[in-house]
Structures are given as structure tokens and as C-alpha cells.
Amino acid sequence: MAIEQEVLVVGGGLAGVTAAVSAARTGADVRLVSYKQPTLRNASGLIDVLGYTPDGEGPLVDPFAALDDLPEGHPYERVGADAVESGLALFDDLTDSTYEGNHTERNALIPTQGGRVKPTARYPASVAAGLASDERDALLVGFERLVGFDAPLSAARLNAAGAPFEARGATVEFPVALSADPKVTRFAHLLDRDEAGEERQEGSVRRALVERVVTHLDGEQRVGFPAVLGDDHPEEVRADLEADLGVDVFEVPMGPPSLPGLRLEDRLYDALDAEGVRIETGNPVVGYEAGADGDRVEAVAVDRSGATVPYAAEQFVLATGGLVGKGIDSDREGVEEPVFDCHVGHPPDRYDWFDDRAFGDHRFARFGVDPDRELRPRNGRGAVEFDNLRAAGAVLGNYDFAAEKSGSGVSLATGFHAGRLAGENT
Amino acid sequence: MSDADSPHDPGVPDDEIPDDEFEPVDVFPESELDLRSGADDCYKCSTCDTNCPVAEVDDEFPGPKFQGPEQWRLKRKDDREIDPSIMDCSNCMRCDNACPSDVPLSQMHNEARAEYVDEQMSKLSVEYWRNRVLANYRKGAWLGSKFPRLTNALANNGPLRKLGEKLFGLTAEREFPAFATQTFREWWAERGGAQVQSEEKRVAYFHGCYANYNTPEVAKAMVRTFEQFGYEIVVPEQGCSGTPMFANGMLDDARRDAATNISSFSELIDEGYDVICSCTSCSMALRQEYPELFTFEGTADVAAHTYEALEYLRIHEDLRGALAGAEVDGDGEDLAYHAPCHARNQGLARQAVELFRDLDGVAVEDVGDSCSGISGTYGWKAEKYEKSMAIGEEMFEEMDEAEGRTGMTECPTCAMQMEHGTGYDIRHPLEILEAALVES
Ligand SMILES: Cc1cc2nc3c(=O)[nH]c(=O)nc-3n(C[C@H](O)[C@H](O)[C@H](O)COP(=O)(O)OP(=O)(O)OC[C@H]3O[C@@H](n4cnc5c(N)ncnc54)[C@H](O)[C@@H]3O)c2cc1C
Ligand code: SF4
Ligand code: SF4
């Protein structure tokens, strides 16, 4: 006997979670199975929709205005602007007051750890006071021992890039004695708990931090910290720092592992629970069983530490991620989609995968499955592989999320679209 | 010590004691496992580090990325010794489950720990012998269960416990688990073994040490529930699963017991049996750690046919249907459920919650995805006790905030920790299943 449900989503990243919620909201009975942790906690927590065109034009002020000009096959072209808006609306609903940016269709400009400015569509509430379009001067504060954020350097770069405000940087010792190479979660949890044990630091950690920062303030109305201000209670941490410093406090998004990404992951998984989606993590899907005439998937095979168990469903969503999440696998022989062996178009010669020009067209980054407008992967001849299999997120091809800055937006739009269609077809 | 070399035990039927000492066959005796490609797969994202419960409370612990791929690289490059901090890893395996790039972290930890214990730890140290005794819990348990009342009284004698801490490094803070007055195997023999015969539905029960000596009610619940569904059960000769031995770097001890288990169970698999565990660390060992560490004939077969008890019923029976019509007597018991880390690794972290969601008479509340902190023998060590309780703090708080005053988990040592930290009674999902489905 197989484990049965109406819709089965494979993969638990942003695309899979969105697809699962979207399907559940049509009234379907949904299960999500995912192998390892998704890329959410590697990502900055910023929700990019489109920062640059595929030709490298940008940063774009209004990503929606650019959607119409995308080439055929691009995930946004496949699902259409409505699905992009609906995906974002679903995200806004799930994240509620913890995210901002939905008041406008225009991109916000966010200063990142290296002192660059990044166009994005939605951003955590904790970074809101740091927007580069804000004309108030800013003090950036880094911590000794926290690699990846050199506050004076970031400030200098922002100024050099012509930010409409004056930025200054300072580095302070975190008020709790730490090892040489502390984990970012360590900072966050010390601030969450607000105590470190008497021998390390007496009294409130937040308070002690404020005392170290306040001496550096020189009239600035806002202070930016690396994004480690709490894991479980970020609002509380920030509110305390703001109250004691008497200025606005914001977080500067950091590289992996990222606290805003982690918080988002927690929030989304709670939402899955609330929507009644069954979740199973820890085991990979390794194959499938097709129906008699081969045009439908009957079940997928889940590898439970050596034992293979069938999971049957009416509709399936493939959201296994790209090259990082291992939804697309490459070796010397070629590139493949390992679960359903869907067609992944690529040139036969490996050297053609990379463009010689440094900022040229990196085909490698665009590898992925090639879907119809219902997001059903197609074979090499353009015919749908299976009637009841749809794909969403980074497993899709024909776009380069890192260059376009479209990673999360594509996952939301295609996750929403694939999930809704899957749910409606049960 | 397995039952095979224990003095003749009148409680165990004769045919379960093989007459000659079993000879393990190691197919590739000298092979060093090659972990190089695993280390090369690491792209240094530090996801593993953000999942490590020990690193979270102990700033000095370098974390899984170091313990695994980095240490492996150092060793390969300039033959560096294993860093002693490997002994602070509790083998919870959360890092293993987290890595997006499939780096075999816990396998690397297990090998490094074994090498450290073999080559760098003094065999004359109290720590070595304390760990060895903890790892071989089953030997002590076998003896203790012969005189359960006396052992229980002695083990929980305050001054004696203090002495244990001083001389042996066992924390005096914990109460030793009580031995049952009748072991599961004694009960099984007394009832005359299996009550159901079947050609098609057959399972071989790996009860492990704890359900045999300490919580036979869990094992009995497994037997009655599976028999209700028409399964023929055998309870073959078996040793310890090896979990406490891996965690203490005692790979030779583990290998010895693994040989017994693999031989015993792979024969039954040939006769159509699947292997069922009621402890998630035992099933973890048989399914994942054995194939990672041993090459006995039959290892892969045993791994592919081993299941956790609830998982097995969910796959092979219409458990949802059976529970839909059932109810548990009582006035709506609230259970605070903790998913053991090793259950998480097998993809089982959510099944109890999912299963009992619609069962009348109980309400299950998940107390979050933190680690209980005891990790088998880890929390028993005097120098690890504080760390273990600090890790458990999050779970204690969540349990405290939960509606109910009863806990539930699949892992016997998590259960110990839950009880120790909150004073709640702790139950096993199999006991709830039995209460719902089996006529008493
Ligand atoms: C380092 C990094 C930084 C990024 N920064 C940004 C950013 O700043 N802004 C932005 O908008 N986007 C960013 N992104 C992109 C974005 O976070 C996601 O990568 C993108 O949305 C793709 O999500 P996904 O759900 O398709 O895939 P993933 O997040 O990769 O999730 C795939 C999931 O599927 C599971 N899986 C894979 N194979 C199987 C299988 N066989 N069986 C079961 N489960 C399986 C995986 O374990 C994983 O959990 C970044 C990505 C990376 C890697
Ligand atoms: S097994 Fe657990 S304690 Fe050990 S390094 Fe991994 S996460 Fe940390
Ligand atoms: S999670 Fe995996 S890839 Fe990332 S640092 Fe740890 S071992 Fe390396």
C-alpha cells in the first residue's frame, strides 16, 4: 500500500512551500516531502522579483514594466504577470507584518554587507530603516570577530557610489566574551536571550551593546548592524536597541548562513502547518512510477534509508531547486533532472556551457527543465512529459536568477501557479 | 556481551541461543572508507553549523563543518591528529540532515571519533573506561535485570550516586532508569512467543536494550498492535544496536554487536520478514550507520528492510482509516510531543503528530524542533551534564508552555531527559496506538 494524498509537492524551498500553500488553498489534501534543508537560510532574506533584464540592463526601477519584454520560455513569460502578482500577494499574506515593500510595484534599494546597493521587491521589516533612498545619514556598526561585514569599508563604498546620505562605519567588540570564530547564530541567540551568564557579561546584552555603540553616534538618525539581531525575537531586540539608542535601527543583509533567511524559513513552515499541509523532511524522492500509457505519474518513490516507499497522488509538483539544491545535477557526462529524468536542454560540449565573456550569457546558470504555460515540463520535442507533473522554482530553466536578481520572485510566481493548477485538477 | 555468550538464561527459549559462537565475516576487512569526495562536496555554506545544538551552547566547540570536511582535509594534507573536541559532539546527527550538499557529516564524525579513541585517548583513563561502560549499557543492564529491585535501590542511593560522580564521572544529578521486574524477553517466553501465524505478514522485532530491560510496556504495545493487524512476530537473538558505542568512538564494540545483529536478521529477511524497531536510534543505526561503517554480508539487506514500527504500519496498513473510527478513553489527554533528532534524520519527525491529529481522546502538541540535549550517554557524563541541560532548555520551556502534563517521544533517552527536566510522565506513540486500536 502507498502513502496517498491528492497533491504531492517534492522539495521544501521557497517554491515548494508556495506551491503547497497555493494547492491547499484550493481545498486539496497536500503533502510536501523534502530531503535536506532548502537554500532559504543561505539566501539574504530579500525577495527579488527582477533587478536586471536578461541582457543586463538595470538596476530596474519597476520590475513589472520589464516583464512584457522577457524572452519566450522565461518562467515569468510562461506564467504571466498575474501569477507574479498573485505569488507576491500570497507571500505578503504569509509573512504579514514581518515583510515590507508591498505598498509599491517599484524596486527598493537595499544596502548589502559589501556596501553595494541591491534592487529588491520585498524586504524584511528589520532592514526597512536602511533603504538607500532614505536621505538620513547612517552609522554602520560591525562586530570584531564577525567576518563578512567591514562597516567602515561598506560605508566608504556607499559614499563612493553616490548614496544620497552620508554613511560612517565603526567596529565594536561584541559585549560578550566569544571564541575566535563565533557562529552568526551565536550573536543572535545572545541578543534573543539578552543574558550571557554572569561570568561572561553581567546584565542585559542589548543594553551593554548600546553602551558601546552610543559613543560612536555623531548625530546620525539611524544605525545599521549586521543581520544577526535575534533569531526568535528579532522585533523585540530591535525595539530595545532603538529605544536605548534613541534612533532607528536596521539590519544589513549578510551572506550565508543568514538570519533573515532562517527566520523566513521558520515562518513559512509554521504557515504550512496552519494550512494543514503534511510535511515530511529527511528522505529523498528517487524515482517514480508512471501509469499504463506513460503519460501520468502514479506515484513517486521515496527512499527511506534504503527502503523504497511509494507515495501516490493525483497531481505532483517538482520543486527540487537548481544546481545548489541538487534538483539539477551535472557531471562530466551532462546535465540531468534526477527524479523524473525530465528533459534538460544543453549543448553537448561542456565548454559551450560557459561563455568566455565575463558578464556574458552564462548558459550554465540557465539549465533547467523547459515547461509549457501550465508549467508542465516538456521533452526535447516540445511535448508535455506527464499530464499531472508541474515544476516550480530553480529547477526551471531559461533564466539566471543570480544575474537577473529574480530568484525568490520566480519561486513565488511559479510555485503559486503550479500549486493552484495542481490543486484545481484534483 | 550478547545473549549468546551470557550464562544460560532460563527465561529465554533454547532455540534462541545459538550453540556456537557466531563468526562474523567482514567482506573487506582492511578497507579504509573513502570520505574524500564527501569532503570535496562541502561548499562551506555553514548550514550545518547553524543546526548544531552543541555549538549553540558551547562557544568553544568548533562545530560540524570543522569536525567533518575541514578536519578531513587537514588530516589528508598534513596528517594532523584528530582534534579532541570531537568528543564533545553528541552524535545527534542534525548536521547530517541539514547539509544541502549531501556531505556525509556523521559518518566523518564517527570515523574521527573512533580514530581519536583508538589512537589518542589513554586506555588507562577514567574517561575511557567510563565511556566504555556507558557504551556497553547492555552488559550492565543484563546483570541489573537479574536483580531489578536491588539494582534500582542501589542505583538511586544518593551517597552512592555522589561517589559515582567523583570516581567515575557519571553525573549525580540524574536518577538511573529503573529496571523492569520482568524483561520483555522473559514476558515473551512466558506467553509462549507469537500468538499469530502468517505466511505473508511477518516482522522480526529488534527491541534493543531499553525496551527489553527498562520499558517492556513499549515492546508489549508493539507486539499487541502488530498482532492485531495480523502480523507474525519473531524476536530473534540480538545485541545492542551500537548507537551508544558510535557516540563514544567504540567502533570495535559496535562491530561485534553489529555482526550478531546482521547475521541474525538477514537470515530472517530471506524468509520474508521485515525488521521493526521501536526505538528511533536503533532503526537509525541499522539503516544508516551500519552501511556507512561496516561491510558484513547482509548489511545492505538489513538496512533496506528495517523500519520504525509506526512507519511500517503507516506504509502497509490503512492506519489513518483505522484511527479515524477509534478513540482513546480518558478526557482528552494532551501530549507534548518531542521528535528525537534521530527520528528527524529518518524523515519521521512529523509522523506521530500527523497520525494522532484526528484521533479522538488525545491532542498532540509538537514542542518544536530543538534537541533534547541528552543524546544517549552524552548527558550522563558529569562534564557534559550542564551542556546537556542547556541544550534541553528550549524543549523544557516549550513543554512547560504546552497544555498537557504528559510527554510523548519515540526515543528512550529523550524520554529520560524530558522527565528529568519537567517531571512529566512520558509515553511512547506505540502505547497510544495500542490504547486506540487494541481491545483490552
Ligand atoms: C547562496 C544563495 C543566495 C541567494 N540569495 C538570494 C537573494 O538575495 N534574493 C533572492 O530573491 N533569491 C536568492 N536566492 C535564490 C532563492 O533563495 C532560492 O534559491 C530560489 O528561490 C530557489 O528556491 P527553490 O525552492 O526552487 O529551491 P531550493 O531552495 O534549492 O529548495 C529545493 C529543495 O528541494 C529538496 N530536494 C532536492 N532534491 C530532492 C529530492 N530528490 N527529493 C526530495 N527533496 C529534494 C532540497 O533538499 C531542498 O530542500 C539565493 C540562493 C542561493 C543559493
Ligand atoms: S552530530 Fe550533532 S553535536 Fe555533533 S557536530 Fe553534528 S550537529 Fe553538532
Ligand atoms: S552544510 Fe554541508 S556544504 Fe554547508 S558547510 Fe556544512 S558540510 Fe559544508
Give structural attributes:
heterodimer; A: 426 residues; alpha/beta; FAD/NAD(P)-binding domain; Rossmann fold; 4-stranded parallel beta sheet; 10 helices; B: 440 residues; Fumarate Reductase Iron-sulfur Protein, Chain B, domain 2; disordered N terminus; binds flavin-adenine dinucleotide; binds iron/sulfur cluster; FAD-dep_OxRdtase_2_FAD-bd (chain A); EC 1.1.5.3 (chain A); oxidoreductase (chain A)
Would you mind describing this structure in some detail?
Chain B: Residues 78-111 form the 4Fe-4S ferredoxin-type domain. Chain B: It comes from Halorientalis pallida. Chain B: GO terms for molecular function: 4 iron, 4 sulfur cluster binding; metal ion binding; oxidoreductase activity. Chain B: InterPro entries: 4Fe4S_Fe-S-bd, 4Fe4S_Fe_S_CS, Cys_rich_dom, G3P_DH_GlpC_su, Helical_ferredxn. The complex is a heterodimer of chains A (426) and B (440). Chain A has 10 helices and 17 strands. Chain A has helices spanning 14-24, 63-67, 75-95, 151-160, 184-193, 205-214, 234-245, 259-274, 401-404, 407-424, and strands spanning 3-10, 30-34, 99-100, 108-111, 117-120, 123-124, 138-143, 167-172, 222-226, 248-252, 278-281, 285-290, 297-304, 307-318, 329-330, 335-336, 389-391. In chain A, helix 1 runs parallel beside helix 8 (259-274), helix 1 packs parallel to helix 10 and helix 3 crosses helix 10. Chain B has 440 residues and is α/β, with parallel strands linked by helices. Chain B has 3 domains: 36-120, Fumarate Reductase Iron-sulfur Protein, Chain B, domain 2; 184-316, Rossmann fold (3-Layer(aba) Sandwich), CATH 3.40.50; 327-437, Rossmann fold. Helices cover 50% and strands 7% of the residues of chain B. Chain B has helices at residues 36-40, 47-51, 53-57, 64-78, 94-98, 105-119, 126-135, 137-146, 148-155, 158-168, 184-190, 208-213, 216-228, 243-247, 251-270, 280-293, 299-304, 309-316, 319-324, 341-345, 351-356, 385-401, 412-422, 429-437, and strands at 202-206, 232-234, 274-277, 306-308, 333-337, 362-366, 406-408, 425-427. Chain B has a 4-stranded parallel sheet, sandwiched between helices. In chain B, helix 4 (64-78) packs across helix 6 (105-119), helix 13 (216-228) packs across helix 24 (429-437) and helix 22 crosses helix 23. Chain B is globular. Residues 10-16, 33-40, 42-44, 46-48, 256, 284-285, 319-321, 324-327, 339, 393-394, 401, 407-408, 411 of chain A line the site of flavin-adenine dinucleotide.
